[in-house]
Fold this sequence. Notes:
The strands form 3 sheets. The chain has a 6-stranded mixed β-sheet with strand order 4-6-8-10-11-9, with no helix packed on it. Strands 1-2-3 form a 3-stranded antiparallel β-sheet, with no helix packed on it. A hairpin with a 5-residue loop joins β1 and β2. The chain is mainly beta. It has 2 domains: 7-68, no CATH class; 86-197. It has helices at 7-10, 19-34, and strands at residues 49-51, 57-60, 65-68, 86-91, 96-99, 105-110, 119-122, 129-137, 160-161, 175-182, 189-197.
Amino acid sequence: xxxxxxxxxxxxxxxxxxxxxxxxxxxxxxxxxxxxxxxxxxxxxxxxxxxxxxxxxxxxxxxxxxxxxxxxxxxxxxxxxxxxxxxxxxxxxxxxxxxxxxxxxxxxxxxxxxxxxxxxxxxxxxxxxxxxxxxxxxxxxxxxxxxxxxxxxxxxxxxxxxxxxxxxxxxxxxxxxxxxxxxxxxxxxxxxxxxxxx
Length: 198
């Protein structure tokens, strides 16, 4: 297998790139990418693919190494588009659990009044993470949160915080779309309103 040229020395700003280095870089990339199966889903079907930013592997979240990029460096990547799995959850009997083993994007349908602290979090990552939640009335609507309309009252205060109050719409199929982030598992997700269908 063709070795990658040393990026720091072969590809410097303002310096003519050696044709042999360009050829080796192209060949090394093609050899590694062409080694991928046509439709790779990972050892765990549906497992997210992550790129090790040290540039030494393309891995699946379950730790299975897929392509060895040993010796390559990655710098200044651009992400053009990302697609996420949406985990559908129903808040019935006053509670719901957002299990981050199922992803970080949740579509929560409310089909009963939600208890105070009724929406909890499980299996959150240890390091920096983000979460997105659409909290939606079902086709009947009219359900409350802790007897009122303050969305933050629905979320467990051990895992979530809201810097501003978000009002819960009570009409059928109405929703709020929230996003949040935290630096580590010792922090709470700081939730903010992105959209509200009132």
